[in-house]
Fold this sequence. Notes:
Blueprint: H1 2-19, E1 42-47, E2 52-54, E3 57-65, E4 68-69, E5 80-87, E6 104-107, E7 113-117, E8 121-130, E9 136-149
Parallel strand pairs: 2-9, 4-5
Antiparallel strand pairs: 1-3, 3-7, 5-6, 5-8, 8-9
Organism: Nitrospina watsonii
Protein name: DUF4399 domain-containing protein
Keywords: Signal
Amino acid sequence: xxxxxxxxxxxxLMFAVGCAGQGGSGGGDMGSADxxxxxxxxxxxxxxxxxxxxxxxxxxxxxTNGYTVEPAKNGVNPGKGHHHLIIDVDLPPAGQPIPKDSNxxxxxxxxxxxxxxxxxxxxxxxxxxxxxxxxxYDPPVSDSIVVFVQ
Length: 150
C-alpha cells in the first residue's frame, strides 16, 4: 500500500515539475536529450534515475550535449561551463549568479558527478549548467529528477 501511495504522489509531482517551465523535462530519464529549446543541446541527469529509492549518500551524474564542461576558473567561454545541483528549491532568476548554500551545490572543478547527503524523504534534484561566472545560460540548460531517500 505504501508503494502505491508513493507512486501516486510521484506521478502528481512529476506532472507538476514537468509543467513548471523550468527549461528541463522534469524527467531525468525520459529519453530526450533536448533540455533547452532547439539544437539538441542540453544537460541530462543520468544517475540516479527519476523515482529511484536511494541511500542518504547519493551520487548524481550529468551528461552534456552541445556544451563543454570545464572548471569555473577558466572563466566565461561560449558553449562552456560547469554543473550545479539545485536541491528542493526553484532555479535562480535568469541573469543572476547561482547562490552557494546547501540547496545550491557548485561543481566548479569541472566534475560531472557529485555525491551528496540527503535526509529521508522525497527530494527534487535539478542540474543547472552555468558559465564560469556561475551565471546560468538563458534559457536555462537544466534537467530534474525526483528521488526517495529511505
